[in-house]
């Protein structure tokens, strides 16, 4: 019987304690999995939304790290940006998270410049796109289109009325987007959004689409030009904008803190379990040493048991964490806002973390077992 088989047999001999240890580790790992997946998913969802729109650079206020960048007057800067070399199109965007109807869950609402390239990646499932003006031609048409997830969440569809910020709008179409965050949103023309939020002429960001001939050097030149001629503004990629987002940064910080706390608690649980095991098996360990087991082999046995417990807890924690995240994604408050991401490297990282927890929690009890004198251990009554 090799060391691994012996370690497994020893754990089976103490099923109650082994199950409780695995369960405690699983709870900590599940929190790590859920928070990490949500943080990465939130970042990936927003970056995908910007990338699917075909945006190459985003111009916004340099010091803004809010979930929604601070609004500013966009028209004067849009004209200047449009004149830059390799800039094919400039499109303003205004977005907010707003409550809909009476007591309904908040949803993202986007205002996009009519006729801009921002609309081109959406697929109209039903109805039509919003008109530019009302029948009288003197005000923005009170029309909005709704993403498929938002339609299901709000139980709304084409031709239904929806109330946003105390104003009744008509849903004229249902769309589908490659990005989850847009599928869970409402989209309207920019001028209507500006009137709805009382921000006339303002946008959160200006989206720049460059021509196909633009390279890395051209992007860098545009960024320098924006920094030099637009005080207080920067031109960044969608990935940089998302990483600056305060919500993303807070979520990542919470994920790291949870990982640290869960790792320490799990290591303590493993330490306690293995210390009790060593105490109960004093005579057994003494017998093994009397039969010729080297101290490092005794250490290897105890650490192997601790590592197997941690790995089992990690596997159970991954399953539990993914299940919890799926549940969160289907809650009304979260639907259409997050799409958890678990890259293959994440599972390898969790496995490595569990190995470290097992070694860290089992090493001290293992060293204690290895320092036992066979004669004294055999004389001890258990």
Task: Please characterize this protein's 3D structure.
It is a single chain. The chain has 382 residues and is of the alpha+beta class. The protein folds into two domains: 3-45 and 248-379, no CATH class; 57-236, no CATH class. The protein has 13 helices and twelve strands. It has helices at 3-12, 15-52, 75-82, 148-154, 180-183, 190-196, 216-229, 238-244, 246-280, 282-290, 295-329, 344-370, 374-379, and strands spanning 57-61, 72-73, 87-98, 107-112, 123-127, 143-147, 161-164, 167-176, 185-189, 202-203, 205-210, 233-236. Strands 1, 3, 4, 5, 6, 7, 8, 9, 11 and 12 form a ten-stranded mixed β-sheet that branches. The protein has a two-stranded antiparallel sheet with strand order 2-10. A hairpin with a 2-residue loop joins strand 7 and strand 8 (167-176). Helix 1 packs across helix 11, helix 9 (246-280) runs parallel beside helix 12 and helix 11 packs antiparallel against helix 12 (344-370). It starts with a helix and ends with a helix.
Compact description:
With 382 residues, the chain is an alpha+beta fold.
Structural class: alpha+beta
Distance between the termini: 25 Å
Number of DSSP E strands: 12
Helix fraction, binned, reads 40-55%
Q: How many strands, which pairing sense, and closed or not: the largest β-sheet?
A: 10 strands, mixed
Portion in strands: 15-25%
The residue ranges in which pLDDT falls below 50 over 5 or more consecutive positions are none
Morphology: elongated
Mean pLDDT: 84
How do the SSEs run, as a string of H and E?
HHEEHEEEEHEEHEHEEHEHHHHHH
Task: Kindly give the count of domains.
Answer: 2
Question: Could you tell me the radius of gyration in angstroms?
Answer: 29 Å
Query: Number of helix segments?
Result: 13
